[in-house]
Structure formats: C-alpha cells, structure tokens
Amino acid sequence: MTTTVLHAREIHRADRATARKHRDAEIEAWRDLTESFDEADWHRRTVCTEWDVADIVGHLCGQAEDVNRPWLFPLRDRRAKRAYPNVVLLDAHMMIQADEHRGTPPAELRERFAKLWGKATRTISRNPGLIRRMPVKVEGVPGFEKLDLGYIQDILLARDLWMHRDDVCQALGRSFDAGPYAEELIAQVVLDVQEGPFWRGVPVELVLTGQGGGTYRLGDGTPIATVRTDAVGYMRTLSGRDDHPVVELLDGDQSGAEAVAICRMPF
Length: 267
Hints:
Layout: E1 5-7, H1 16-35, H2 53-68, H3 72-83, H4 89-101, H5 106-126, H6 129-132, E2 135-137, E3 146-148, H7 149-172, H8 182-195, E4 204-209, E5 214-218, E6 225-230, H9 231-238, E7 248-252, H10 254-262
Parallel strand pairs: 1-5, 4-6
Antiparallel strand pairs: 2-3, 4-5, 6-7
Helix pairs in contact: 1-5, 1-7, 2-4, 2-5, 2-7, 3-4
C-alpha cells in the first residue's frame, strides 16, 4: 500500500465552515466529558501545573467570554499585568480567566461552559470579514506576535479546546478520543510548524501514527531522515507538555529524529 506524503506547505488552511465543524465537535465532546465528572474529578491536578480540571474548564469559559464580549480582553490584560507581572501576558491572561471562574459549583460551571460556547461558536461564524482580518498583538510569544482575529478564533480556539480535553483525560486516567476531525486539526499544527519560525531543523519525513496520524515533509530539500512518533503525543511535545517524546528513527540521519524531538510551538 502506498502512503501519501504531503509537504507541510501543501496543507490547506481550514476554511470557516471546516473550522466550525472542528469547534462544534469539540464543544460537544466537552459537554459529554463534563457530564461524566464526579465531584473528585473536578479537583484532579493537570499537566497545566497551576490548574486542576475545574480551572481548565474555567479558562475555556473565559475564552468564550472573550469572544462574546470582546471588551473583556483588554480589561483582563490589565488585570493580568497587575496580578502576574512576571508572567508572559498571554499566559497571565489565561490565568485571569481561570481565576475569575474558580470556586463556581460544578453543575453551574458545566452549564456555563455549554451556554458560553454555544453563543461563541455562532458569533465566530457570523463575524464579518473586516473583523476577522483585524490584527491582534500577542505579547511575548515568539512567532505569534501578530495574528488575524479570524485565525485565532477559527484555528487556535478549536486547537485549545482539543488539547485541553486531552489534558483532562490525562489527569483522570482516561483514554482520549481525538475525535472525527483529529487528522485535520493536527495537519493545521503541522502547517503552522512549517510556515512559522518553529521548524529550524533539517528536512525530514515525519510519520505520525495513531489517532489523527499522517505523513508529512518538513523543511526544504530532500529529507535526510524518516522519523515516526505518535500523533497526539507529538502535539503534547510541540506544545511543551511532554519533553520526552518517543521518536523512532526509521531511516537516515539521527539529527532528523533530534530535530523532531526538540521542536516547540506555542499552541
């Protein structure tokens, strides 16, 4: 059987309709997941070291609030600078989101998530082109210093929902169902790795296995190595959640495997 190998630059950016499918699927998966929590589950610690499960849900509620009430974003930035002066502003902003929802009773937090995200996904889909093209400055995040609002809302929010769902499954010791659009979501990450300043390594053929897997070429020129690793696990590595990925060199130079293992990109 022939394996399709796609250069990362050939990946098409997800359009609005596709992005909404990804986002809505994640919102539904989160609703199902939170419905399954018992009281203890809300307080399990996560790989996001300062947060428990409830804090992650609170942060995601804050993401939706920033969509529904855009004036909250600069207000939270100001609070974040005061509360966390030594933290990168984007991270501090997310910490404020979690702080503002901390202590909410689980049933209320579950209902709040569903209501806020139901409205947010509709708002994103209806935003006019002029709003979507609005540049947003992201302080202290190399490679993401200025992003279009449409990209943030279409691509990054779905990615955040997806990755945090895996965080929670990890915390609860549950298997992670990457969902029906995992391959597309992961392909968007691979595109960003190539197109941003994140891939500085040698050209490689990257074989991602398991849920959301695919085979891609990264870098310019003829690949010097073929490297294999788990797709979801590699998303955790790229985002800085796991610095010890299992990366297998299938063929070629060991430096190709090393380039894959050390690459990082803000999610």
